[in-house]
Amino acid sequence: MTAGSLGSQGFAYRAVGAATLLALFVASLFVGVGELAIGSLADPEALRLIMISRLPRTLAALLAGSALAIAGLVMQTLARNRFVEPSTAGTAQSAALGILVVTLVWPNASLGWKAAGAAVTALAGTSVFLMLAHRLPPTQPFLVPLFGLVYGGVIGAAATFAAWHLDLLQYLEVWMTGEFSGILRGRYELLWVAGALVVLAWWTADRLTMLSLGRDVSIGLGLNYTGMLRLGLVIVSAITALTVVVVGTIPFVGLVAPNIVSRFAGENLRHTLPGVAGGGAALVLACDIIGRLIRFPYEVPVGTILGVVGAVLFLVLLLGRNSND
Predict the structure, then answer these.
(1) 82 or 4: whose pLDDT is higher?
(2) Which of 80, 187, 242, 278 could form a disulfide with 194 if both were Cys (CB 3.0 to 4.6 A apart)?
(3) Looking at domain 36-324, what is its CATH homologous superfamily?
């Protein structure tokens, strides 16, 4: 296959992806209990509904999906394993534990302070995971995600036990189940910080790509290995904390989107980051729309929908990898 055909194929994939994301964005604005049509946009009440509820919800899904997908890609780079992401490696569970601690110590804390506390515990939890994961035999790549599931389960169980004793189980359930039904204008704006972290990841993409080559190789190429490792940890922890505190835990986005995009675009982060961000946003938007329609006029949380869809896609990717091997 010639370079020209590869370039035209890549352009076609990007065009289809952009059109799909745009279609999902528009559909999200008009799907809900309150009836809306494109022709009703001249109605002040319809416009008010869109600006207060539908548009913030759609933007929140877009920002959360793209940020979680990038967080998953960065975590896979740090762990040098394609089958880990924040919700399956203890990062999301550590963030929820941090929110629980902040709520206990400071019940009236703002979302910003809760996010800060969640980021600290997420950073600590992710650091411990990576430290232990790097000790596992590199010839057994499936041990890392299995260890991550057990590690995250232990942290989640500790958070549940503490919440049960403190009579905060209902609060913990909100943070552990991702949903957008409570998103309104003024309630999602912290996610723009996650969007800024996506830009930071793109800006450092070349150095993150070198980081994936391992400590010795990256240092030999002149990379500040320790500094980039810390920056990657901050990006993953902050994005996860922000999404958990605003919309709750959304699983599998950071696992599925990077793996699907990398099959078409390769492993270079500079090239794959836009596709991964768009794929994560499209996945979350699509699952949120399905959650609104599947039991209309009631809603199924997007975390529940993605738990099913993401698990199926993950198995498909896993079986596809095994068949290729």
Answers:
(1) 82
(2) 242
(3) ABC transporter involved in vitamin B12 uptake, BtuC (1.10.3470.10)
